[in-house]
């Protein structure tokens, strides 16, 4: 069994509830959501990324001190992730998923970050799987979308994240909104400020 992997790297989680944790990132190729502000458009076409054996990914992840893996993309749920998750768990590695929720769930994850996109909303099953809801904010309309999403995920920690290329405009909007609606927290792409992957 293999998966189309763009890159694997060991770094600190830069966003959301797990910010600051060391983790091994496994970025899968393939995405059919197509956000205009995507910071990894090279992930969209899975055919240009060679398949990598799942056993090799597990071996590399298990050799690191953090023993935590973030599966991201692209959209990782385009692929069956059961074998990857079971292999990682058998090796004593925690699993974290970053997804738009636009495809059926597979795999068993210790933490799910749901980052819903208006362009292709999550499937119904995704709302109940989220430990964390992270909504990207470009403008005021995204705050309305965020509230609708939050109402579907009462169990999740709530984060608003200023879109990086519009952060000068989006940051004040997010800050003021959270001050008025303190059930939300801000998520910054701290890895970009730290200049790490």
CATH architectural label: Alpha-Beta Barrel
The secondary structure category is alpha/beta
Kindly report how far apart the N and C termini lie: 27 Å
Largest sheet: 9 strands, mixed
**CATH homologous superfamily label:** Aldolase class I
**Biggest sheet: strands side by side, in what order?**
3-1-2-4-5-6-7-8-9
Number of domains: 1
CATH topology: TIM Barrel
**In which range does the helix fraction lie?**
25-40%
Could you tell me the number of beta strands?
A: 9
Principal-axis shape: globular
CATH C-level class is Alpha Beta
Look at the structure and give the mean pLDDT.
95
Measured by DSSP, the beta-strand proportion falls in 25-35%
Helix and strand pattern:
EEEHEHEEHEHEHEH
The unreliable regions are none
The helix tally amounts to 6
**Radius of gyration over alpha carbons?**
16 Å
Helices, strands, pairings?
Blueprint: E1 2-12, E2 22-28, E3 51-53, H1 54-62, E4 68-72, H2 82-90, E5 94-99, E6 111-114, H3 124-129, E7 132-137, H4 140-152, E8 157-162, H5 167-180, E9 184-186, H6 190-194
Parallel strand pairs: 2-4, 4-5, 5-6, 6-7, 7-8, 8-9
Antiparallel strand pairs: 1-2, 1-3
Helix pairs in contact: 1-2
Keywords:
6 helices; TIM Barrel; alpha/beta
Describe this structure in words.
The structure is a single chain. The chain has one domain: TIM Barrel, CATH 3.20.20. The chain is built from 6 helices and 9 strands; from the N terminus they run βββαβαββαβαβαβα. The chain has helices spanning 54-62, 82-90, 124-129, 140-152, 167-180, 190-194, and strands spanning 2-12, 22-28, 51-53, 68-72, 94-99, 111-114, 132-137, 157-162, 184-186. It has a 9-stranded mixed β-sheet with strand order 3-1-2-4-5-6-7-8-9. The model has no long low-confidence stretch (mean pLDDT 95).
């Amino acid at each position: 069994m293999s998966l189309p992997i763009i890159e694997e790297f060991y770094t600190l989680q830069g966003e959301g509830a797990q910010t600051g944790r060391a983790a091994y990132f496994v970025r899968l190729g393939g995405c059919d959501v197509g956000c205009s502000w995507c910071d990894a458009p090279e992930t969209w076409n899975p055919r240009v990324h060679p398949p990598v054996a799942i056993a090799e990914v597990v071996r590399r992840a298990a050799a690191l001190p953090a023993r935590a893996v973030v599966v991201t993309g692209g959209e990782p749920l385009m692929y069956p992730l059961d074998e990857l998750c079971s292999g990682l768990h058998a090796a004593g590695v925690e699993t974290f998923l970053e997804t738009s929720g636009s495809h059926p769930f597979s795999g068993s994850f210790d933490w799910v970050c749901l980052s819903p996109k208006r362009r292709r909303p999550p499937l119904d099953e995704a709302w109940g799987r989220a430990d964390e809801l992270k909504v990207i904010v470009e403008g005021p309309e995204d705050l309305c979308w965020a509230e609708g999403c939050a109402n579907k995920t009462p169990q999740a920690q709530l984060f608003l994240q200023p879109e990086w290329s519009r952060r000068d405009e989006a940051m004040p909007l997010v800050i003021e909104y959270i001050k008025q609606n303190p059930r939300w927290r801000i998520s910054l792409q701290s890895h970009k400020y730290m200049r790490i992957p």
